[in-house]
Every structure is written in structure tokens, then in C-alpha cells.
Amino acid sequence: MRKKIVAGNWKCNTNLQEGIELAGAVNNLVANEAANDVVVVLGVPFIHLTKVVETVDTNRIGVSAQNCAAEPKGAFTGEVSAEMVKSTGAQYVILGHSERREYYGETSEVLNKKLALALENGLTPIYCCGEPLEVREAEAQNEFVKKQLEETIFNLPVDEFKKLVIAYEPIWAIGTGKTASSEQAQEIHAYIRSIIAEKFGEEVAEETSILYGGSCKPSNAKELFANKDVDGGLIGGASLKAEDFLGIIKGF
Fold first, then answer.
1. Residue 190 pLDDT
2. Which position among 48, 97, 99, 106 bears the catalytic label?
3. What stretch of H or E contains 17?
4. Taking 80 as the threshold, does the pLDDT of residue 218 lie above it?
């Protein structure tokens, strides 16, 4: 049975002290009020990783980096390697986020390197895919997403692929206040699952968690998570308030 997952992506927000406080608040709320069958993950800035790992119950809350370097080590000033991330106690890393693709020019070639290093170091990649507004308006989202997956995670051996979590991001619904309807979310998630089945088989497809990465809020989480193929969310802004984040977790 595939996992239900709610992952927060704090992005470039919170200083270290604020991050520790937020992680502590989430930890307390999850311990007291969240169902045990929902996996909770906090995707925090690099400088927070070690302290957040120390702050939360890591048997209950996973800690994730938001990125890692495409090289294992060396003269790459400012980069943080997958091995460094792993050494903090983090278990996850977000890869392929639309902001990394758009603002930092991350290509499939770069992401393949990052995926290999993340897996080699025992991290679970939360791998993002999704289309911009012009692709959605042209009704070409299926082809767009399929290409993103075929160029990257579909190249992995099946035993490595099974270690991934996928997050679908309707880029047109991130930070805009727009949200894919429940029906739109289910449609694209079902499509992604169908092409996983074509590539790796029905059993693998049924075991793969696919998260919705649009504007998920406490007010719409229950409706989104009720869909057969929506296994949780990759949450941006709403993960920066502990009560809102808990409200989304309780959407299950």
C-alpha cells in the first residue's frame, strides 16, 4: 500500500531561529493530533538541516533538503553535495522543482546527475514535474510531463525508481492563488500513474506515491486527497504556519 505523504517546502524562508521554532511547533502538533499513517516531511533550507533533525522526532517527521549539487565534491563554491545533506541526518531531497528549473536553468542532464548522487547516498528524492500555463492552455500537459519523466526518472532501474516520491506541480497554480480543480488533479495524477505502469508495471505504479504540488490549503486538502491517485501534497506557503500545515495533514 503506497504511503500518504505531506511534505512542506519552506523555500528561501525563515532564519535559523525561526526555522527551529517552526519545526518544534510542527513536531508538537503532529505528535498530538496527526494520524500515524501520514508521513510528514519538512523541506528546509540547508543551514537548518542539522538543527531541525535535532528538533523533531525523526521517527515521525522526515527532514528534507530542497536541492543538492550535481557533483559529489570538489571546487564548486556554494554547492552542497548529497553526501553533505545525508550527513546532517536528513532523509529526503527535493529535486526538479519548477523554480530550480526556471530560475537556475536545471536541465534533465543536471537532474539525472543529482538523482544518481541522491540515491547513491541513501536519500529519498521527491522528484517534481509539471507544466506551465501555456502548456496547460494548449492541453499538452500530458505530453509535457511524460517527456520530463522519460528524460530523467524513467531511465532509472526499477529498484531505484521504487525509492522515489513524485510531486506533480501545476506551475500555473504555484503562488498564484489558482488551484487545479480536484478533477484536474486526479486526471493528471492518474495519467502519471498510467505511464509508470507502462514503463515499470502495474505493481510498481500502485506503490508509487504521487503528491500534488499546487496551492494546497487546509480548505481544499480534504477534497484533493480524496482522489484515488493523489497521495498527498508538496506544500509551499501553507507549510510556513504550523496550524495551517497541520490542517492540510488532517485532510486525510
1. 98
2. 97
3. helix 16-33
4. yes
Residue 166: strand pairing partners = 127, 210
Task: Take residue 35 and report the three cell numbers written for it.
Answer: 494520524
Average pLDDT, the chain: 96
Q: Report the 10 Å Cβ neighbour count for 5.
A: 24
CA 7: distance to chain centroid?
6
Q: Are 23 and 239 in contact (CB under 8 A)?
A: no
Query: Cα–Cα distance between 172 and 38 in angstroms, integer?
Result: 27
* Cα–Cα distance, 41 to 54 (Å, whole number): 14
pTM over 0.85: yes
Of 73-77, 118-122, 211-215, 220-224, the least confident: 211-215
- CA 115/CA 13 separation, integer angstroms: 25
Residue pair 123/114 in contact by the 8 Å Cβ criterion: no
From 48, 106, 169, 189, the catalytic residue: 169
97 as an active site residue: the answer is yes
Task: Tell me the mean pLDDT in the region 52-60.
Answer: 97
Is 199:219 a contact under the CB 8 Å cutoff?
no
Report how far residue 225's alpha carbon sits from residue 60's, in angstroms, rounded to the nearest whole number.
Answer: 20
> Is residue 83 among the annotated active site residues?
no
